[in-house]
Specification:
With 188 residues, the chain is an alpha/beta fold. It has 8 helices and 6 strands. It has one domain: Ribonuclease H-like superfamily/Ribonuclease H (Nucleotidyltransferase, domain 5). Strands 4-3-2-1-5-6 form a 6-stranded mixed sheet, sandwiched between helices. The protein is globular.
Length: 188
């Protein structure tokens, strides 16, 4: 089984807004494979938003994504096709820290007239799995890393850096999930 760990960054403003207003501006993903959950590949792309193409100062400060990063990027339709090609046809489970990423993918797929991938519907919510395994309330990625005695690397709220950190957590908790057990341990 392959596990696709994904993290997204989206347009944002200091004041909360409707999720439908936000658009993906970065997709970061890591591929974990086999029993050992080795990191075997990475995907990182900026995405140019169409509705509000100028990033807010808040968004630039939070994510460290520059206007020039997204001005030179392809639109979601192209980047998402590249992402799906990168994933390939072999069996996989998509994973993220919480539900936000799958909700934002749904919104952007709808906005661009793309079918939401059926395989994304069997999403593993790593945040929920971590809370269940540790018997705690849901927590943020940085807190989970701290609980595991792992440092936070890179810039928090940059998709590629966050997904690298989430992958470290995933390697610890996926072997304790029913998904992993049914795919590996029960087949021995």
């Amino acid at each position: 089984m392959r596990y696709i760990i994904v993290d997204l960054e989206a347009t944002c403003w200091k004041q909360r807004t409707q999720p439908e207003r936000m658009e993906i501006i970065e997709i970061g993903s890591i591929l974990l494979t086999g029993r050992s959950l080795e990191v075997t590949d990475e995907f990182s792309r900026f995405v140019r938003p169409i509705n509000e193409p100028i990033l807010s100062e808040f968004c630039k400060e939070l994510t460290s994504i520059k206007q020039s990063d997204i001005d030179g990027a392809n639109y979601f339709k192209t980047v998402f096709a590249e992402f799906m090609d990168w994933i390939g046809d072999a069996s996989y489970r998509i994973c993220s820290w919480g539900e936000y990423d799958m909700k934002q993918f749904r919104i952007d797929c709808k906005r661009h007239g793309i079918s939401f991938p059926k395989r994304f519907k069997k999403h593993i919510n790593l945040k929920q799995e971590f809370a269940s395994i540790k018997r705690i309330r849901s927590c943020g990625m940085a807190v989970a890393l701290q609980m595991l005695g792992m440092p936070l690397h890179g810039k928090h709220h940059r998709a590629i850096d966050d997904v690298r950190n989430i992958a470290k957590i995933a390697k610890e908790i996926i072997p304790m999930t029913n998904y992993f057990i049914s795919n590996y341990l029960l087949k021995d």
